[in-house]
Task: structure prediction
Amino acid sequence: MRLPAFALTLIAAATLVGIPGCGEGGAEPTTGPETGARADQASGPSRPPSERPVAKVAVIGIDGATFSVIEPLIAAGRLPNIAALMERGAAMVLRSSEESDSSPVLWNTIVTGTGMATHGIIGFTRRTDTEVDGEVLSSYGIFTSQDRKVPALWNMVTSRGAFVGVLGIWNTWPAESVAGYMVTDRFAHTLWEDTSERRALAQTTNAGVTWPAELAGLVSAQVRPPEAVRREDLEQLGAFTDAEWDVIVHSGEDGDVQVGNGLRALRFGYQAQESVGGASVTLLDELEQPDLFITFLELPDRVGHHFWHAYRPDEVRGGAEQVEAGWRERWGEVLPRAYEVTDRWVGEIVSRLDPSTTILLVSDHGMQSSGSPGGRLDQLSRMAHSGKHSKDGILIAAGPAIVSGARTEATLLDVAPTVLAAMGLPGSRQFEGRILHELLDKGHLRRFPPGPAQSEAELERRAVEHTEGLDDAYMEQLRAMGYTGAAGEDVWDNRADAPDAPDPAGEPRDG
Result:
C-alpha cells in the first residue's frame, strides 16, 4: 500500500516502518510562514475551506533538450515515450531568457515565474569576500535555496493547500518544509556512499538534502556515485579507448583541478541522472502521487556541451575533418543515445503517473554547435565545449488540461503561471509571465477554475549548517563542465550571443 505523500511531513514520520536511517542527516529545516502546514501537525495540511478541487500536474525538466535533436530521433522511432506525449498533446518552442544563459538562473526563472533580478539566483556560484589582516579573500560556493528571494512553485502549491513532490532542481538545498517532499540538488552530489572512510562526512553533509529528513532512507539506495559508474554503463552511449576511460575515471585524482573536462563531465551527468531518475521512480512507487510532481533529467545538457562535435561534425568551423576521425566514428551516437536513455526515464516516470495527470516536458534552453572541434587526442582532459546554448528550448504538454495540437509563443516565465492554472490553483501576483491560455482546455478550466491571483507570504530563511567541504563534489562537477574556474568563480557567460572567449580546448567559445 502506498503512503500518502503528505504523511512524510508529519512528526510521526518515524512510523514509516522499514525505512533505514530515519532521523539521521542533521536537523530538519524549520517551517516558515510561507510553507502552509507545520511539521508538528497531527495530520496533513488541510484543504482550503472551499474544498477547491485540484488537478494533478507533473513537470519533467530535461536540461538542454532541443527539438533539433528530438525531431529526427522521433522520425527514426528512437524516442517512443516523448513521441507518444507529442502525438496526444502539444509541442512548441519554449523561448529561453534574454537575461542569462546560466542554468541555475533559468531553472529558477521556470519555477518562480520571475526573472533573475527578482528571484536572486544570478549564476552558478556566489562570491563571499572576507577581510583577513587587511587583505580581502574571496571564496565561492553554490547558490542555495536560502539565496532565492521569492517563493517557488512548491511554496505556492503548499500555501494553497495542495501537495507537492520535487526532485533534483537546481539550488533547492537546503530542502524547504513543504506539504509533501523534496529531494534537493545535493542528492546526487553529496557523499552518500556507505563506507567507513566517508560515513561520518556523509552524515554531516546530508543535512537538508531531503524534506523531511526521514525521506533520505527511502531514496539513498538510488544514488549512483560517480565512482560506481561502470565502463559498460557509458559504452551504451559510445566506445572509449583505454586512455579516454582513464581520463573519465582518474582525472583530478592527482590534485589537479580539472576545468572543462568533457569526459569527466559525462560520468557526472550520467550518475546524476540515474540517481534522480531512480529516486523519482522509487517515490512514485512508494508514496501517493502528489498534486504537483517535479523532477529533473540533466544528461542531454552534459552530453550536448561536450559531444556535439562528434554528433554533427559538419557544423564545426573548417568542416568535419577538424574533428578527430576516431571521435566521429566512436562518439557520433553519444548524444542520440543519451536522449534515448532520457526517453526511457520519461517512460518510467510517465507510466507511474495517474492517467488524469497533465504532463509538461520543459527545457531551460536548447543546444547548438559552438563551432569548436572539441579538442585534441593529446589533451583528453580538456575535451570540451563543442556545444553551446541556443534560445529555443522545448515545451511538450499532454493530458486532460491540454488542447491537442495547440501552438503558441511561450517563454520560461510562462511555465509557473500555466502549471498553477492547469492545477486549478490561484495564480500569483509575483509572476512576470502569463498563463498559456491557448494551451489549456476550456472544459478542464471550468472543472478546475484557478481563481484570482494572490500575493505570496515572505520566505523565511532556514538555519542549516553549511558544513565545510559540502560544496566540494558539486564544485568539481561545475569545473568539469567548464562553468567555473579553479577557484570556483563563474568563468564565462554561456549566452548564445556572448563574445568569444578561449575555452579549455583552445578554441573560441562563441558564447
Notes: The radius of gyration is 22 Å. Residues 262-286 form the longest helix (25 residues). Residues 5-481 form a domain with the Alkaline Phosphatase, subunit A fold (CATH 3.40.720.10).
